Amino acid sequence: MAGPHPNPWARLLLAALLSVSLPGDTANLCKKAQVKSCTECIRVHRDCAYCTDEMFKERRCNTQVELLAVGCRQENIVVMESSLEITEETRIDTTLRRSQVSPQRLRARLRPGEERHFALEVFEPLESPVDLYILMDFSNSMSDDLDNLKKMGQDLAQVLSQLTSDYTIGFGKFVDKVSVPQTDMRPEKLKEPWPNSDPPFSFKNVISLTEDVNEFRSKLQGERISGNLDAPEGGFDAILQTAVCTRAIGWRPDSTHLLVFSTESAFHYEADGANVLAGIMSRNDEKCHLDATGTYTQYKLQDYPSVPTLVRLLAKHNIIPIFAVTNYSYSYYEKLHTYFPVSSLGVLQQDSSNIVDLLEEAFNRIRSNLDIRALDSPRGLRTEVTSKMYQKTKTGSFHIRRGEVGTYDVQLRAVEDVDGTHVCLLEDEDQRGSIHLKPSFSDGLWMDVGIVCDVCTCELQKEVRSARCDYHGDFMCGHCVCSEGWSGKTCNCSTGSLSDTEPCIREGEDKPCSGRGECQCGRCVCYGEGRYEGHFCEYDNFQCPRTSGFLCNDRGRCSMGQCVCEPGWTGPSCDCPLSNATCIDSSGGICNGRGYCECGRCHCNQQSLYTDTICEINYSAIRLGLCEDLRSCVQCQAWGTGEKKGRTCEECSFKVKMVDELKKAEEVVEYCSFRDEDDDCTYSYTVEGDGSPGPNSTVLVHRKKDCPPGSWWLIFLLIPLLLLLALLLLLCWKYCACCKACLALLPCCNRGHMVGFKEDHYMLRENLMASDHLDTPMLRSGNLKGRDTVRWKITNNVQRPGFATHAASTNPTELVPYGLSLRLARLCTENLMRPGTRECDQLRQEVEENLNEVYRQVTGAHKLQQTKFRQQPNAGKKQDHTIVDTVLMAPRSAKQTLLKLTEKQVEQGSFHELKVAPGYYTLTAEQDARGMVEFQEGVELVDVRVPLFMRPEDDDEKQLLVEAIDVPVGTATLGRRLVNITIIKEQASGVVSFEQPEYSVSRGEQVARIPVIRRILDNGKSQVSYRTQDNTAQGNRDYIPMEGELLFHPGETWKELQVKLLELQEVDSLLRGRHSRRFHIQLSNPKFGTRLGQPHSATVIIGDRDELDRNLINQTASSPPPPPRGDLGAPQNPNAKAAGSRKIHFNWLPPPGKPMGYRVKYWIQGDSESEAHLLDSKVPSVELTNLYPYCDYEMKVCAYGAQGEGPYSPLVSCRTHQEVPSEPGRLAFNVVSSTVTQLSWAEPAETNGEITAYEVCYGLVNEDNRPIGPMKKVLVDNPKNRMLLIENLRESQPYRYTVKARNGAGWGPEREAIINLATQPKRPMSIPIIPDIPIVDAQGGEDYESFLMYSDDVLRSPAGSQRPSVSDDTEHLVNGRMDFAFPGSANSLHRMTAANATYGTHLSPHLPHRVLSTSSTLTRDYHSLTRTQHSQSATLPRDYSTLTSLSSQDSRAATGVPDTPTRLVFSALGPTSLKVSWQEPQCERLLLGYSVEYQLLNGGELHRLNIPNPGQTSVVVEDLLPNHSYVFRVRAQSQEGWGREREGVITIESQVHPQSPLCPLPGSAFTLSTPSAPGPLVFTALSPDSLQLSWERPRRPNGDILGYLVTCEMAQGGGPATTFRVDGDNPESRLTVPGLSENVPYKFKVQARTTEGFGPEREGIITIESQDGGPFPQLGTHSGLFQHPLQGEYSSITTTHTSTTEPLLMDGLTLGSQHLETSGSLTRHVTQEFVSRTLTTSGTLSTQVDQQFFQT
User: In the predicted model, is pLDDT for residue 1340 greater than 70?
Assistant: First the structure.
């Protein structure tokens, strides 16, 4: 089936076209893709194609052009075809007064990754019809605004008529949902909430859009105000109905739709929690629900819409919002209006008297903005609109000019993958759909779009178990696809069989496959994933020819030992371009007809000095040098004179001919005349032809010379004249300034030109400097021809005489760093300036190898390090060349040797084999530097880059002197030679240094942790550079070299450098020994006003632990036990510094005398000294290790000697550094709806410092709980806010949530939970919004910020508002935890979070002694609604307006009572003994002591230890049982009573005797462990008196789980605790709890019951809130109202996931064995019966029941 092969010339043409039209990256992408089928290939990239030709031998997956070039026929190539066609296009008619677009419809089918562009025209007329709809808040506070609006009807019409002649105007009003808690549900308030007002309503369309202004005014006059209770209003419901009820409102299709939203209050939005029905209601269905009177009817059944929903719907219906709000609510709407692409915001006066002016201003502003948005776009397609005519605003809209047709460029792109999934694997609705590209004022463009994800047709026509594949595979798309276990082109080889290796052995070799592969079925399968090729794997694809170090010149690939060049290149190493573009001459020919083009270069037929690279004769060069070239040959041949006379005359390539007369100069190529030195006569000759005389050429020479006559007498005349001239010039020079200037221009009076510095003084401020060098300009004046080089030097600290000399004379053998800069003879590229790129690494290696080869002749010099590349601006014609900066460690005394050697190599232009540009270098020593700069011809200015020697020890005002030394090359003279640089130190923002100058680390530690500290002077940012330097330790052999920047943010005082240590190799230990080795870490280049403190250099000593210990004791033997106290003095100046999170370095000065050693005591601050640890040291310093992070320690030291032990030093205290925190505590989810959840978490158990932030991540997971796409991140930078409300999650999708905490040391590990909101029951708790809790829109893309808004922005009324404030800053502490009380207008949720959290909370039933001073009416006494069996009947006051205070029992601990101990630490002393430590709690009064209680976790005897000494904060507990869990509780006492307790659970694990499990084995190891508590508690309300509780099994249970114990009690006491037992071990357990009371906080505790006893508790507090929302006028008359339901009614209630054993109530009541459905909810009959008996409204009962209840 072999078809005709393409002509070779056609192939060459295709390859040439390919080199121009197709980038190599695409071809490589298609070829390198590991695809197994045609479909996989064409989905790799939009340009990939597949060859189905059976005879095709090359790689089948490639670009279409390359497949054609290598022989695949066009009919056998499969490629995805895309299309874009316009299906409807009506041209824009600018005479029409309406908005128009063109085209109107198109159809597009794109390949994955493909993008198409097309033009979109949009026309906005100068004047267009306008529909203006006014939507006004009708709450009582807007009464004066309504009065003013009634008066302004005519003015409003007049303004509209000025804007357009075609307008309509309409009016609507809104208040809020007519339900609790938004509205007062008492019958009299439902009729008239305020005097002379209408009944409350949600939204009503009062006046549909009309052209009749009189009708508008008359209808408006009859409107009255209404009212509601809470501050936020239900305006979002009104906006949505106004948008979607197009027919009822009267929006016209071709007009500009303006919606004026007027209010003075904030707004409710979806699931905002202020509505008790939030979450119980269904989501808004975005449909019109207006009745015949224009009233919104679904307010009780549907929730408010969200902000993203309104943005989308208003854009869809061409409605532009204008927010007219008062100062009180301006801040809310200022943030809200930014989410609308085109909108306006204006400030209303208190009575709305300026609404007309505001509308006029807003309309003019809106008219000039146009937004074009893509609606309903599938996930796999992206649309972007740009314009060259108009500028985009911050909100993404265009600033247009009306009356002209605007042109926009639309980019339609099909993405290749979405969240890591290929676009062709997505659902069908994500691949295709109808995109509505809609401008603000018109209908827009409809695009029918889709992604081409076709399957190759050849795969649908495969031959199953084909004979062509030996029946072991399928023949498909031109080749065999072998079944599993078979391989080969025809699937004839079993991969499991071993065949004879003889066919795989190459002639002359003895190894199969050349030792580079395996022999399978007589064929070689090569190793190396493509490195080895060939029948015998004989070709190494890394060994092809290279050019400039690049394999195949980086223009091809290595195959079969040869370079296979990319199209357009040829040659053994692909270094020859096929194009002859570089050989084309000025006339368009090839090599000027004097040669041929090969490998991109001209090879001339006849080489000459006067032919250039394209064989073109340079006649100007000929004329400049031709006469001189022929002169000596003419002399010797014509007259036998000149430098070639004699035999060398025969070497001349031409002959001369003597003639009597020469042609004129214009008739010949060159006419030449010279003076013969032998006789002082002038001879002449001419050159004809092309000016390049050959062997047979003849030069015509004039036979007669011109000899001058005798002129000796002139000598006597000229001498007096010259003397006289010199005298005149001298007088002019002395007395005539003008003459002096003129004479300076004469060559005889001018030595050439002058160079010098541009300025003579620079003054710099250190805190403003961003670099440690200064580019100092140097100028050249006068004649700019020729090349000049200038040597310069800079000296540091010239204000200190002799400073540099003294520094150089100290310790001449000490190694110091020398900075070296050179200019390489190669251009600089972007990759060279990016460390880590291949080009940068290759050049760095080349530079270091060559420079090391040169500098190794300097005694004591080390290898170069820290090599970088850059460009030097203002460097003349070579500023594009590469500058290399590197560092060389050499002895201090080697400076002069290095300088001479560097100058010599620069002058030669090379360092070994490294080519450098002459005329440039810089060598920087400790206190001075020398260098050279170059002026090329025509260059006037170059920069001298001088180092500034920034040192911490510098004076507050230091001087540097730059001096131009000389001009070694060139004729220039030095002008301004000196530059003074003054650097002034100002007050530093911070001082950064190491804690100590030396650190010892063991090689086994793998990482050296070096702390860097900052002393804050002015709280801001600080930054320093750091880098390591070799000493006896070598980089990449003993440690990994590091360099970089350390940035301290405001408030940060500590950072840690981590240097990775390398294991000592066996060869190194043999050659270099196992002695300790050192390297240095230097801090430098301070920025942002930072100053380096002392020490700013640290030495790190690497050694074995034994060797470090021997060095510490100085090889001295251990001394005998010290005798009793002698006469030694106390050690002096004890000093302690934290060396990390678990280390403290403690040092002191030895006392007088001869101490033999020192004894150190240290203990946790607050512990008794009797608990101190003891350390013995032979040197006056010690390192305390294994300490607790961020913990205060006290220590002291004494000396001992032959006379005994001396006194102890004074106490020194020190706190260890912070360490990253542990994972946060339990994650709790309050499920608001199937798409909204409130996530909260507890503080980490081990904070290890001060928590500064939390990071919450969440993202979709698949069935295997693996992430789908990237996780979204939210930074909660207020550590007190440990809650987050996440909206717009995908319904019925599981999400993975992680939370991690950050302190000063960094981020800790994360806590993880996976939950699907849809699996939770549909009636969650009501969630009042907590102040300043961030609300996140999970679906918010590029159009929204990560934080949509804060809840506090919505719920808090501003100061001065006429509505009562619903926020307060009260905290409630219960049991050492934070108890929040929040309002949902009489509804509260009590949440337990960690004790050190602080939130502002809302007024609630539990506020102590709060007074409300307000003119508004409070409608209920919240305190009396306590439905418990202990409640007494109470009567509310009749006059509600006189209610001025709310009080209840104070839940805060009394003043003076101690807080919870802040830390509980366990230390195992043995398998049965334990030390318990805590830190002193905060207390306003003096502490009297502590109480420690402990008992077995599964019950047993309670042990109590009383500690009367308040200074003792630890206790040792003996005789514990091994492998048993104990619970410990610690609390403190003051004169005011006992404080709250801190609780911890701990187990000492150890090996025990097999026959006696309570007896540990002697000498066995013991460890501490803590069993984990059950997973997060999730509460779900089922009815007003019952809820469902669910939890996950513990991660680390202590033994096998048998079941769970659940305890329920009132959070504030007042009733007995009820205990439930749940049997079984399931991933998730559930329990239905009946018999609860509303508005009463309950505390639930869940602990696992295991084979080892009970584990730790998981605790949560929850409140079922009142659903009725109103007070009861005669509470005492309804005895059934507070009746606690009988337990017998719930005898049929059981738990979910339990065994068949009967659930037991621990207080004596037994639940029956009858089981319900496992949903865990009550039956409909029981629920309705209970609700009717208690006369409550759960939110699902009818309005009639509500009214009957209030009338009872």
Answer: no
Dump pLDDT digits (tens) for 946-956. Answer: 998 877 677 77
Which amino acid appears at position 796 of this protein? N
Residues, the chain, total?
1752
Q: Of 1053, 1043, 1041, whose CA–CA distance to 1012 is shortest? A: 1053
CA distance 472 to 175: 77
Amino acid at 1657: E
Task: Give the distance from CA 671 to its chain's centroid.
Answer: 76
In whole angstroms, what is the distance from residue 41 CA to residue 44 CA? 5
Predicted confidence (pLDDT) at residue 1155 exceeds the cutoff of 50: yes
Q: Which of 1150, 1124, 1133 is nearest to 1210 (CA)?
A: 1133
Q: Which residues, other chains included, contact 586 with Cβ-Cβ below 8 Å and sequence gap of 6+?
A: 616
CA 596 to CA 602: how far, in whole Å? 6
Phi, psi of 1092 (to 5 degrees): -85, 130
Q: What is the mean pLDDT of residues 1711-1721?
A: 29
Take residue 1554 and report the two structure tokens written for it: 């097999």
**What residue ranges in 415-470 does DSSP mark as E strands?**
417-418, 421-422, 432-439, 445-451
Cβ atoms 1039, 1079 nearer than 8 A: yes
- Are β-strands 1144-1149 and 1132-1138 bridged in parallel, bridged antiparallel, or unpaired? antiparallel
1382 vs 1395: CA distance, rounded Å: 18
How many other C-beta atoms are found inside a 10 Å radius of the C-beta of residue 795?
16
| Mean per-residue pLDDT, 858-881 | 86
Cα separation values, 570 from 16, 600, 753, 1132, Å: 12, 10, 51, 81
- The model's pLDDT over 1064-1093, given as tens digits with 9 standing for 90+, comes to 665 455 545 567 888 999 998 888 778 788
- Taking the C-alpha atoms of residue 628 and residue 625, their distance in angstroms, rounded to an integer, is 5
Q: In Å, how far from its chain's centre is CA 316? A: 34
Residue 361, SS3 per DSSP: helix
The string over 1541-1567, giving b where at least 16 C-beta atoms fall within 10 Å of a residue's C-beta and e elsewhere, is bbbbbbbbbbebeeeeeeebeeeeebe
Among candidate residues 928, 903, 914, 934, the one with its CA nearest the CA of residue 864: 914
397: left (phi over 0), alpha (psi -120 to 50) or beta: beta
Q: Is residue 788 within 8 Å of residue 932, measured between CB atoms?
A: no
Check: CB of residue 322 under 8 Å from CB of residue 336.
no
| Residue among 1317, 1446, 1330 nearest 1389 (CA) | 1330
Model-level pTM?
0.35
Is 1336 in contact with 1286 (CB distance < 8 Å)?
A: yes
- Tens of pLDDT, residue by residue over 917-956, are 889 999 998 888 999 999 988 888 899 999 988 776 777 7
Q: Is 368 exposed, middle or buried (0-12, 13-18, 19+ CB in 10 A)?
A: middle
Closest by alpha carbon to 203, among 181, 172, 227, 225?
A: 172
DSSP-derived letter for residue 1682 is T
Span 829-849, average pLDDT: 87
Q: How far apart are the first and last CA of the chain?
A: 97
CA distance 1584 to 1731: 8
Q: Check residue 1159 and give its pLDDT.
A: 92
Asked if 1128 and 1201 touch (Cβ cutoff 8 Å), the reply is yes
Please state at what angle helix 213-221 crosses helix 153-163, rounded to 10 degrees: 150
In this prediction, residues 1677-1699 reach a mean pLDDT of 30
Which residue type occupies 237?
Answer: D
Q: DSSP character for 971?
A: S
For residue 639, give every residue at least 6 positions away whose Cβ sits within 8 Å of its Cβ, in sequence order, or none: 676, 683, 705
Percent of the chain with pLDDT over 90: 11
Helix, strand, coil % over all residues of the chain, rounded to 5: 20, 35, 45
Cis peptide bond N-terminal to 1095, omega within 30: yes
Maximum distance among all Cα pairs of the chain, rounded to whole angstroms: 154
Is 1655 in contact with 1598 (CB distance < 8 Å)? yes
